[in-house]
Amino acid sequence: MIIITIKRSLWFALQSFWRNIWLSLATIFIISLTFLSINFLVIINAISDSAITAVKNKIDVSIYFKQDIRESKVAEIKSHLETLTQVKEIVYISPDENLRVFKERRQDDQIIQEVLKELEGNPLSSTLIIKAKNLSDYPEILKAIDNPAYTDLIDKKSYDDHQTVIANINTITNNIKKGALVISLMFVIIAALIVFNTVRIAIFTHQQEIGIMKLVGATNGFIRSPFILENVFSGIMACLVAISVIYFILSLVQPHLANFFNGVDLNLIGYFNKNFIFVFGSQLLGIIVLNIISSSLALGKYLKV
Amino acid sequence: MIHLINVTKTFEPKTVALKNINLHIEPGEFISIVGQSGSGKTTIARLLIAEIRPDKGKIVVGGWNITGIKHRQIPLLRRQIGVVFQDFKLLPKKTVFENVAFALQVSGVPKSRINKIVPQVLKIVDLGDKLNRYPQQLSGGEKQRVAIARALIHRPKILLADEPTGNLDAINSKEIIDLLLKINEFGTTVVLVSHDKEIVNGLKKRVVTLENGEISQDQKVGKYVI
After folding, report:
1. pTM for the complete prediction?
2. Is A178 in the same domain as A203?
3. ABC transporter domain spans which residues (chain B) (predicted)?
4. Domain ranges of chain B
């Protein structure tokens, strides 16, 4: 009996979907638009995340050691700093490497090149470039560098130069994240209301049928399940439509993204591929749950015959 | 078969549809409930299928006291009473076959049995060649015959026809009434709710007349006299 009922519910749902094809298409269209707007927000979030990451990656602390400091001492400091949990990466640049890079950068500056020729030996010293895991970790790292044992060894630190910039970026990125969260929540609420009302309208058009079904002896469950399945089916179709449209648009836009964002590595297709199950799975699950709730609530009104 | 004992029904705000009605219908009877609009005849039909509940009194259908019937039991009651309505109440997006089959599908009858019975019943109502038509492709008389086939598909002991000829012309009306008489001949109790004088007078069966929610006449072989 249960298997027969499930089979019939599925069959009725598909039959009703097909025989009310214009209503079904209208429902799919509206839910697809809702999906698209949510995914547009996902794209905006992905872009802002990439931009923030790119900016963060450009921030580091450089420690310039005094000229007479031996490489072994610098290596010792490097090893010590690497033990800090806040440190992501430390790059050691030897005096020779520093000189080579300096010469390269200033190769068109004749005066600099001549001065370097006049000098005996390498005037540059060793440098450590430190990257933190998070922007907020830099003060801790700086505290470690400010160790009195190192004070006499260090010529200067670059962090002092852009401490304010780092603080500002930190505040801005945190605000962007908070803003994105609020906007996302608003979008989700609006999307839920749109889907809820779309389903209600779809059920409203069937109210006469629901009454007839009741009068010929159908139970509430027998009436309810095909309508719920039909709306869930519309939700799944809308999700598939939205996925197709998003990938189509991204395939057109992707080649131009790097130019548009001035060299920021932004692979949106890669982002969606990587997070496919989370992004679309959560949306699909959301739409299924929302459809079940909306259908059940809308049907309840017409089942009291 | 059907007993209404001291039944009263009032609709808000203060419209008394039925006042202390006592009506007993025997198995196999053909009874016409007549009266003017608002006399309470449709209220009786709605009470019998538990679409509404009485304020006072007791209703027994086929030995089942349905006065305080539970919501989940209503579908079971409706599968035991065949109902035909003035506006046919067919499912517009289902074919003739599917409309009739639906009444069986709701009670979990297997597909093989449905495929066997439905064409047989549709043949009885002379629609054997229109199984795949949709309601909008049928005439009024044909729609009502589909509704009768649907009502009969469960082989109910009671057939309740609420103004079944209200939307039909004279020829189609006669065909429908002949069909109801034929169904009655096979032993089904038929309750006809009507305000069509000509039809009721032509039947020469029991007539219960309602006036302002009360039974004014109950004649074994009666006439519509209002």
Report:
1. 0.71
2. yes
3. 2-226
4. 2-219
